[in-house]
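[job 4417] fold queue: 2 targets
>>> target A
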Amino acid sequence: MLCEVFSNIGWAVVFAIVGGVVGIMLVLVSTLFLPRIIERMTPNLNEGREIARGNVAVAQYFGRVVGATILGVSIVIAAAVVGGILAALH
């Protein structure tokens, strides 16, 4: 009985570590690709040039959209990690 509890806790730790590493990699990949996707969605607007020219509206829009998307990906990954931990503890 006690051995099974420690085994479940061990699996929960393994799921948390693996899920955390995979989550970090997914957030980094999304950080690399999301700005490119946003730039493709607005072909008539060069965000980098507008930001360099001091266009605050473009900078805030671009930053908020990319930031919110990365935050959303992080929340989904966190939910998956917690689900894995809960599955290991039962």
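>>> target B
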Amino acid sequence: MITAIRHVGLVVSDLPAALHFWCDILGFSVVKQVDEFGPHLDAILGLKDVRLTTAKLAAPDGNVIELLQYHTHPDNTSWQGQPYSTGFTHIAMAVKDLDLAYSTLSAAGVTFNAPPQLTPDGYAKVTYCKGPEGVLLELVEVLNA
């Protein structure tokens, strides 16, 4: 039935700020950005008179994150879940040098639960940080592939 995962969608309240974080800080690139509206979108979303801007961002490996800013149906609340909350909790991303990523992101004001931690088996270093809208990002550096 399913042949692939196309992208993961993330609703944001401030698209320019989110683009700065995802592109300028994390290194994603904008593949496509478009203003969307119309009866087809209303039907898909189950809303009326929806207007939004979407931006599809590609990671260096080609995986895609879609940022969505709703202009007509703003929520303006950030995700308040915890790592153990039911449902989607985080996006995991691979990095080459987690210590460097940690210091770069910390200097940019990104908050972390803890500095990078070595897994007990020595396979990887891992940490969690918060991105825009409170989304949890898991950063992983594989040490022994």
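[job 4417] complete. Note on B: The longest strand covers residues 29-37.
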